[in-house]
Automatic annotation (TrEMBL), chain A:
This is ABC-type glycerol-3-phosphate transport system permease component. It is a multi-pass membrane protein. The keyword Transport applies. It is found in: Cell membrane. The chain crosses the membrane at residues 38-57, 98-122, 134-158, 170-189, 210-233, 269-290. Residues 1-20 are annotated as: Disordered. It comes from Microlunatus kandeliicorticis. GO terms for cellular component: plasma membrane. GO terms for biological process: transmembrane transport. The keyword Transmembrane helix applies.
Automatic annotation (TrEMBL), chain B:
One of its GO terms (biological process) is transmembrane transport. Its main location: membrane. GO terms for cellular component: plasma membrane. Signal peptide: none annotated. InterPro entries: ABC_transporter_permease, MetI-like, MetI-like_sf. This is Multiple sugar transport system permease protein. PROSITE patterns: ABC_TM1 (PS50928). The chain crosses the membrane at residues 32-54, 95-116, 128-148, 180-199, 225-246, 288-307. The keyword Transmembrane applies. It is a multi-pass membrane protein. It is found in: Cell membrane.
């Protein structure tokens, strides 16, 4: 068995090895099999076109005239690129205000998320205390709890606090940690060798100092990942703004676009799509700036340690 | 007993001091420190987790309009639910959508991951193309696809026409509206694909080589080696997306104006719940729906676990 394994690794692929069914030759690495390579690239190419088409459609629609909007077969490249559609968004709705509101909510949420989740994750990962594992079990259980079960009482709590039509219901909870982010950060804090913290403890450093000066710098990449994920979550959030914000001057971009769509409907779809394009741009830019961290974060979230 | 109690107490105190006062003090300090560090989450859990959870169960037994305090009505809300045809429609729509979407998403995401898990050029390009839609705002996604599916000037039907198919009305046609939502959900499989890709890269090479030496063809290696190795990840991703799919809301809210049109064919449980709570201000009845939704999610999760039990390989 061992001999044959070595044999297989060392010999060129053309040499037949014992029992070998004819279909097998095809699966041994793309590069060596042109026919298979063509199929793989063809499938990937078709999929890529499918995935990219909605973007092209979004851009194309946002630059169309009303006539081109209704044309059949669809016009892909408008005769004249109507950049004015983008200006129209600002004339029709207080879009600048939506952007400002979204930025305020998103930035505050990212700050709250970084402050709270790092502290909590450190408490779960690097400190040993009775009851820790039970509480961590509770934290994991809350990951499975569907948001729709609690939102009505949450709404009434925030109503009693007088927070309806303010940004507080969207921001304050981020300062109180998020089970998923705590879980993610804990994985990173746990990789820090305990000797490092112990050495600092012997030197008489307080736990807060160890957290800030020893542990936190070592998990910085993970903090970036969590901050990015919170940024995307807050920027994209629709349900929270929908139920908590009633005044249209307080709307976020997502809520603003959704209300544009339901108010102005199909005949104005060009400038609605221009607004949609503008809502997507910051996320796309962020995506390309931080793609590596994002992919790492997503991958880690799936392979739960 | 009572007479001895003070003696016992002082004895206990004496032993404690004797044996482990330092230990106890350290233990208490450690507990205090640990709780201090996790206190933000603990406060959040109690205020925005446990309390609303319990309250929501309480509300489900009341009539509550937010204007006046909740009034106890026993099981009346649940009795009303049992006879509510729109709720039955919503439950069946949600299950139909969730089962179809999660199944197709799993197959599609795993297939893409397998294609990318090979020595190919432009891998980074393909990965980016497939992943980008996952981080796009859901509202933007819904608006883009609303226009993609437009029967008279949208991309989807123009492509279908090009291959000789007369496309349906999609979101305007009760029998095609849910499939349209499922197709749209396939645009957002990038996250699942990345997770599968990482799992595929973790499949030990020597295991695959050993199978190959033993004469297993590509399909058999896929079925007997690769799939068992990634099956725990598939279960995790599948359950997560099932929970999300059963709470589908934003897409329907944006694409149908929150109505669940046409003919209630896209009326999901979460959409009906929102209508009940924020259009009819019937918070008690909406809470009962929320609890049925929770039970539905738990039931489907358990069924998924059961069905997959024999096929999941948890390592040795």
């Amino acid at each position: 068995m061992t001999v044959r394994t070595l044999d297989a690794r060392d010999s060129p692929p053309a040499v037949p090895l014992g029992r070998r069914d004819p279909a097998e030759r095809r699966i041994r690495g793309v590069r060596r099999h042109p026919a298979r390579q063509v199929v793989v690239y063809a499938v990937l190419g078709v999929c890529a076109i499918g995935f990219l088409t909605p973007w092209a459609w979004m851009l194309s629609t946002s630059l169309k005239s009303p006539d081109e909007l209704a044309a059949w077969p669809p016009v892909w490249i408008p005769e004249r690129l109507r950049w004015d559609n983008f200006a129209e968004v600002f004339r029709q709705v207080p879009f600048l205000r939506y952007i400002g509101n979204t930025v305020i909510i998103t930035v505050s949420s990212v700050i709250g998320c970084v402050l709270s989740n790092t502290v909590v994750a450190y408490g779960f990962a690097c400190l040993r205390w009775p009851g820790r594992d039970i509480l961590f079990g509770v934290l994991i259980a809350t990951l499975m709890l569907p948001a729709f079960v609690t939102f009505i009482p949450l709404y009434t709590i925030f109503a009693q606090l007088g927070w309806i039509n303010t940004y507080l219901p969207l921001i304050v909870p981020t300062f109180l940690g998020n089970a998923f982010f705590v879980f993610l950060l804990r994985q990173f804090f746990r990789r820090i060798p305990p000797e490092l913290a112990d050495a600092a403890r012997i030197d008489g450093a307080s736990e807060v100092r160890i957290f800030l000066e020893v542990a936190l710098p070592l998990v910085r990449p993970a903090v970036v990942v969590v901050a990015l994920l919170q940024f995307i979550a807050s920027w994209n959030d629709f349900f929270g703004p929908l139920i908590y914000l009633s005044d249209s001057s307080k709307y976020t971009i997502s809520l603003g676009i959704a209300s544009m769509q339901s108010t102005y409907g199909f005949s104005n779809f060009s400038w609605i799509m221009a607004g949609t394009t503008m809502s997507v741009v910051p996320i796309v830019v962020l995506f390309f700036l931080a793609q590596k961290s994002l992919i790492e974060g997503v991958t880690l979230s799936g392979l739960k340690g | 007993m009572t007479a001895l109690a003070p003696v016992q107490r002082s004895m206990r105190r004496a032993t404690a001091v004797h044996h482990s006062s330092g230990y106890r003090r350290r233990r208490r300090r450690a507990t205090f420190l640990g709780l201090a560090f996790v206190s933000p989450w603990l406060i959040g859990l109690l205020a925005f987790g446990v309390y609303p959870f319990v309250t929501s169960l309480f509300y489900s037994f009341t009539a509550y309009s937010t204007l006046e305090p909740p009034r106890w009505v026993g099981l009346a809300n649940y009795a009303q639910l049992a006879g509510d045809e729109r709720f039955a429609t919503a439950v069946s729509n949600s299950i139909f959508y969730a089962v179809l979407a999660v199944t197709l998403e799993t197959v599609a995401a795993l297939s893409l991951a397998m294609l990318l898990n090979q020595r190919i050029r432009l891998r980074a390009f393909f990965r980016t193309a497939f992943f980008l839609p996952s981080v796009t705002p859901v509202v933007a996604t819904a608006i883009i696809w609303l226009w993609m599916f437009n029967p008279r000037s949208g991309v989807v039907n123009s492509v279908l026409e090009a291959v000789g198919i007369d496309g349906p009305g999609w979101l305007a046609d009760p029998s095609w509206s849910k499939p349209a939502l499922v197709i749209m959900s396939l645009w957002r499989i990038g996250t699942a694909m990345l997770i599968y890709l990482a799992a595929l890269q973790d499949v030990p090479r020597d295991l695959l080589e050993a199978a190959e030496i033993d004469g297993a063809g590509a399909l058999r290696r896929m079925w007997h080696v690769v799939l068992p190795m990634v099956s725990p990840v598939m279960l995790f991703v599948g359950i997560t997306s099932l929970i999300n799919a059963l709470q589908l809301f934003t897409e329907v809210q944006v694409m149908t104006g929150g109505t669940g049109a046409p003919a209630d064919s896209t009326l999901m449980v979460a959409v009906y719940l929102w209508q009940t709570a924020f259009q009819n201000f019937n918070m008690g009845y909406a809470s009962a729906q929320a609890w049925v939704l929770l039970l539905l999610i738990m039931a489907l999760t358990v069924i998924t676990f059961r069905l997959s039990r024999r096929r999941i390989h948890y390592g040795d």
